[in-house]
Design brief:
The complex is a heterodimer of chains A (266) and B (385). Chain A is an alpha/beta fold and 266 residues long. Chain A is 29% helix and 25% strand. Chain B has 385 residues and is α+β, with helices and mostly antiparallel strands. Classes of the chains: A alpha/beta (266), B alpha+beta (385).
C-alpha cells in the first residue's frame, strides 16, 4: 500500500504556554527562543498508523510538509521512524496561506506524486487546532475521507476504517485512493531507530516550489486567505483554594464530589 | 575546530533523550526499590538499535563514532546510569575486548547476538585481592592439552549474574606478574562456572552485579581471547571505552540533577521568594553548570581522540578524574538543595546520588587517575615496587 503522510512543523507543545509571546499586531504566536520546532504530535500518530500499515501490508510511505527549508527536520524525523521518502514544499508565495491555501499546496504535491492508495493526516495541528486541512485535501482530490481513525485494515483495493466516537466506534469501508485523519487514541508513536537516524541524516530531502507542483498563485498566500485572525489572546488561569467544611469525612467526601461535578471536573 | 554536533548526532541525541524519558524514567523508581534487573528496557533498547551502536556494521552494530556514542551516553544516563549500563555496559567493556583482541571467529560468534540483545557479555577482572592492582590476580588458568582449567573468584561483575559469556582475566604465568595474564571467554553452562547475584546494593540497584566462581572450569583453547600474556593489555581495550562511559554518564547524571534543582528551587518559596532567587543557591547552580560544560567538552575530546586513533591516556585520566569530582559534587549538592525531599525517591537526584558513588569506582578510582596523571607528568611511578 503506498501512503502519503502530511506532517506539520509546530512549536513544541510541551513548552509551557506562559513561555510564548503573542504579537498582537501580526496575530502571531511567538515561541521562545532556542526551543526548536517539532513534528506535530497529531501527525506523528498518523505516521505511526501508516507505519503499522506498512508492516502489515508492505508498500511505501512518503512524507510531505509545507514550510521553509528548515522544515526538512520533521521529514527526517519521520524517515528515522520508518518512512521511506519525504518532500519539503517551500516557496515565498506559500507564506501566510490559510487552511485552504495549505490544502491546495499539499493536494498539488500529492497529484505530482501520483501513485498513492492512502493519505493520512493528524486529526489537527497542535498550534492552531483547526483540524480542517485533511478534509479540504480530500475535497480537492475528490476522494473519500474518514476522520478520527483508530485502525485500518486493507483488502481487495478497499479499506475498513475503525473510527472513534465519543461513546464508541464506527467502522466504515471505502475504496482507495482515500484520505484518513487519525485519532490521538491510536497510541504513542514509536521511537526513531538508530539505523533510521543514520539513513535520515544522510538523505537529501528534495524541496518543491510552487512551479514544481503547479500550485495556483491565486489560491495560496495571504492574498488568497479566506479568513484572517481578528484577535488572539491567552487564556488566563487563576488558582483558587476552597476548603470543604463538613462534620464527618463522609459528608466532606460527598460535598467534594458534588463540588467537582458542579464545576465540571468529573 | 568544530564544536557543533552533526545532524546525525543531534538526531541520536534527541532519540536517546526520548528513550530515557519514555522507557527509563517511568519505571526507575519501582526497579530501584525492588532491586530488579530491567530486562524489558534492554529489549526496547535493542529494538531501536541502542544496545551496541558503536560496534561495526559487519558485526551487527550501527558503526557510529565514539563521539556520537558520547552524545548518546549523556542522554541515556540523564535517565539512569545503571539502566543504561545494563544494555551498553556489556558491549562497551567486554564487547570492545572481543572486537579488538578477539579473532574473526570469536567476533562473529559473540558480537552479532550481543548486538541483537540475545546474549549478554560480562568483563571479569576484579577479585578479593585485586582491583586497581591487577598484578595480584589469583584466578589461575592452567593448560591441559587443548583446554584450560580455570580456578578462582571474581567480584562485583556487572551483569555477571545474567551474562551468557564472561571475559575472565586469569593468571597463566605467575612469574611474569601483570604480563602473565590472559583472557578467557567462559560460557554460561560450562561445568564449574557459577554465579551469585549481589543484593542490598546502595547504587546500581536496577542493575545486576554478581560474584563469579570458577571451580576446575574447563574451557577450550578456542575460547582464549587474544595472545597468552596479553590479558591485561587486552582488558584495557574495554576499560578505555568504559571510562568514556563514566565521563559522559557523569555529565548526564549531573545535568539531570541540575535541571531538577533549577525546577525545584524556582517552585520552592521560602522567606517570601523562590529559593532559586537566593545568591548562594544561584552560585551553586552556576558552579554545577560550568563544571558540567567543562567535563562534557573533555568527554567529547576524549571520544574524538579515540575516533582518530590518537594517544589519549592522559586525556582519559583528566576527563575521568574531573568527571568523578563533578558527579559527586553535583549529586551531593542536589540532595542538599532539595532539603528533606532529596532523600526520598520522588525526584531523580536520589538514584543519581547513589549511582554516582559506584561510578566513581569504575574504570579506576579518582586516586588511581591522579597517580596516572602524576606518573605521566613527573615520569615517576608512585606505585613502583
Amino acid at each position: 500500500m503506498n501512503m502519503i503522510v502530511c506532517v506539520k512543523q509546530v512549536p513544541d507543545p510541551e513548552v509551557p504556554p506562559a513561555k510564548f509571546r503573542i504579537d498582537a499586531k501580526t496575530k502571531q504566536v511567538i515561541p521562545p527562543e532556542g526551543i526548536p520546532p517539532v513534528i506535530n504530535p497529531f501527525d506523528e500518530r498518523a505516521l505511526e498508523l501508516a507505519l503499522r500499515l506498512k508492516n502489515a501490508y508492505g508498500g511505501k510511505i512518503t512524507v510531505l510538509t509545507m514550510g521553509s527549508a528548515k522544515s526538512e527536520s520533521v521529514v527526517k524525523r519521520a524517515i528515522s521512524m520508518g518512512a521511506d521518502d519525504g518532500v519539503v514544499l517551500s516557496d515565498p508565495s506559500f507564506q501566510d496561506s490559510d487552511s485552504f491555501g495549505t490544502a491546495h499546496i499539499l493536494a498539488c504535491a500529492i497529484r505530482k506524486i501520483g501513485d498513492f492508495d492512502l493519505i493520512l493526516c493528524g486529526r489537527q495541528a497542535s498550534d492552531w487546532d483547526e483540524g480542517v486541512v485533511g478534509p479540504i485535501i480530500a475535497e480537492n482530490l475528490s476522494i473519500p475521507i474518514v476522520t478520527l481513525a483508530l485502525a485500518i485494515e486493507s483488502a481487495d483495493k478497499a479499506l475498513k476504517v475503525k473510527r472513534v466516537t465519543t461513546d464508541g466506534y464506527q467502522v466504515f469501508s471505502m475504496p482507495v485512493p482515500a484520505m484518513v485523519t487519525v485519532s490521538w487514541d491510536v497510541g504513542r508513536p514509536r521511537l526513531p531507530s538508530g539505523s533510521g537516524v543514520i539513513m535520515a541524516a544522510r538523505k537529501k530531502i528534495p524541496v518543491w516550489s510552487a512551479a514544481d507542483i503547479g500550485a495556483d498563485a491565486g489560491q495560496v498566500g495571504k492574498g488568497a486567505a479566506r479568513k484572517e485572525a481578528a484577535g488572539l489572546s491567552r487564556r488566563e488561569w487563576a488558582r483558587k483554594c476552597e476548603i470543604i467544611q463538613a462534620e464527618t469525612p463522609d459528608e466532606a467526601g460527598t460535598k467534594l464530589a458534588e463540588k467537582l461535578r458542579d464545576v465540571g471536573a468529573v | 575546530m568544530d564544536f557543533a554536533l552533526t545532524e546525525e548526532q543531534t538526531m541520536f541525541r534527541d532519540m536517546a533523550h526520548k528513550f530515557a524519558e519514555q522507557e527509563i524514567l517511568p519505571y526507575i523508581k519501582d526497579y530501584e526499590r525492588e532491586e530488579k534487573f530491567l530486562r524489558s528496557v534492554v529489549d526496547k533498547a535493542r529494538d531501536v538499535g541502542l544496545v551496541a551502536p558503536f560496534i561495526p556494521e559487519e558485526y551487527g552494530g550501527l558503526g557510529i563514532s565514539k563521539t556520537t556514542l558520547a552524545v548518546i551516553l549523556e542522554e541515556l544516563c540523564w535517565g539512569s546510569y545503571s539502566i543504561a549500563h545494563n544494555f551498553l555496559g556489556g558491549p562497551v567493556q567486554p564487547g570492545s575486548i572481543v572486537l579488538k583482541a578477539g579473532n574473526e571467529e570469536q567476533r562473529k560468534r559473540w558480537l552479532p547476538p550481543m548486538c541483537r540483545g540475545e546474549i549478554f557479555l560480562a568483563g571479569a577482572a576484579v577479585e578479593p585481592r585485586a582491583g586497581s592492582d591487577a598484578s595480584n590476580i589469583e584466578t589461575t588458568a592452567v593448560k591441559n592439552g587443548n583446554k584450560w582449567v580455570l580456578n578462582g573468584t571474581k567480584l562485583f561483575i556487572t551483569c555477571g549474574g545474567i551474562a551468557d559469556v564472561a571475559m575472565v582475566l586469569a593468571q597463566t604465568d605467575k612469574s611474569k606478574g601483570p604480563r602473565g595474564l590472559t583472557i578467557f571467554a567462559v560460557e554460561r553452562g560450562t561445568p564449574g562456572f557459577t554465579s551469585r547475584d549481589l543484593e542490598g546494593k546502595l547504587g546500581f540497584r536496577a542493575s545486576n552485579l554478581a560474584d563469579l566462581r570458577f571451580s576446575d572450569c574447563e574451557v577450550p583453547d578456542e575460547n582464549r581471547v587474544g595472545e597468552i600474556g596479553r590479558g591485561l593489555r587486552n582488558m584495557f581495550y574495554g576499560i578505555d571505552l568504559a571510562r568514556l562511559f563514566c565521563v559522559m554518564g557523569s555529565v548526564g547524571m549531573s545535568r539531570s540533577c541540575m535541571e531538577s534543582v533549577i525546577a525545584y528551587t524556582k517552585e520552592r518559596v521560602q522567606f517570601g521568594k523562590p529559593v532559586a532567587s537566593f545568591q548562594l543557591v544561584q552560585g551553586t547552580i552556576a558552579e554545577m553548570a560550568a563544571a558540567i560544560d567543562g567535563v562534557r567538552m573533555q568527554g567529547y575530546r576524549l571520544a574524538w581522540l579515540m575516533d582518530n586513533d590518537a594517544p589519549h591516556t592522559l586525556e582519559s585520566s583528566y576527563a575521568k578524574y574531573q568527571a568523578m569530582k563533578l558527579v559527586n559534587f553535583v549529586t551531593q549538592q542536589s540532595i542538599h538543595l532539595f532539603g528533606a525531599y532529596g532523600i526520598i525517591d520522588e525526584y531523580p537526584v536520589q538514584h543519581h546520588y547513589r549511582d554516582a558513588l559506584l561510578v566513581s569506582l569504575m574504570g579506576g578510582t579518582p586516586e588511581m587517575h591522579a597517580l596516572m596523571i602524576g606518573r605521566q607528568l613527573t615520569e615517576i611511578d608512585a606505585l613502583s615496587r
